Structure formats: C-alpha cells, structure tokens
Amino acid sequence: MAERAPEKDKPPVAEKAPEKDKPPVAEKAPEKPRPAPLKDPLPTIELILVDQNRRMAVIGGAVVSVGDAVGPRIVAQIEPDFVVLREPSGALVRVSIRGK
C-alpha cells in the first residue's frame, strides 16, 4: 500500500459561513404617537399622608390610595408633594399638592 504524501503546496482554505446563517437585521418599529391627555380638568390634591405603612391622599374630598379611581384616572403613585395619576390612555400625569 502506498502512503499519501502530505499536501504542502496548497494554502489552507478559510471556510465561509453560509449567508442564511447570518442573524436577521432588526428593523426599528415606528414610534407610536404619545397619547393625548384627557380634556377633563385635573383634580385638586388637598392633602397627602405618607408614613411607614401607608400612602393616602385626599383628592376632591375623597380619601384615596394607590390603585383607587379618581374619575376616569387611577392613582398610580403617592409621594409627599405630589400624586401621579394614570389616564385611560396609559399616560402618567403628575399633580402637585395644592399650594405648593
């Protein structure tokens, strides 16, 4: 049996990845327009109570907590100086306490 001599004259060939293996180029989704705020006037924040265990506010004469409805809006956050309301469109509106 004859042995094959190693091929020294041929340069090594680099293998190319097939085109189909390339990841697809991500296309940017068109930006959605910002939702329009409600035309209803913002409610008046009369009082805010924040302590270790609870966060409450008096809005339009009613005592509310996070998750409560104030007209068509929902209380999303209560802080010492402001309340954040979520509108039906999903937009967040920051309302400062009266007099500040």
Q: How would you explain this protein's 3D organization?
A:
The chain has 100 residues and is an all-beta fold. The protein has a domain at 40-100: SH3 type barrels (Roll). The protein has no helices and 7 strands. It has a 4-stranded antiparallel sheet, with no helix packed on it. A 3-stranded antiparallel sheet has the order 1-2-3, with no helix packed on it. Strand 6 and strand 7 (92-96) form a beta hairpin. The chain is elongated, with a radius of gyration of 32 Å.
Summarize the structure.
0% of the residues lie in helices and 33% in strands. With 100 residues, the protein is mainly β.
Return the CATH class of the domain at 40-100: Mainly Beta
Q: What is the global morphology?
A: elongated
Q: What is the rounded distance between the termini? A: 99 Å
CATH fold annotation of the domain at 40-100: SH3 type barrels
Could you tell me the mean pLDDT? Answer: 81
What share of the residues lie within helices? under 10%
Spatially, the strands of the biggest sheet line up as 4-5-6-7
Q: How many H/I helical runs? A: 0
What CATH architecture label of the domain at 40-100 applies? Roll
Into which percentage range does the β-strand content fall? 25-35%
- Using only C-alpha atoms, the radius of gyration works out to 32 Å
The helix-and-strand class reads: mainly beta
Low-pLDDT stretches are: none
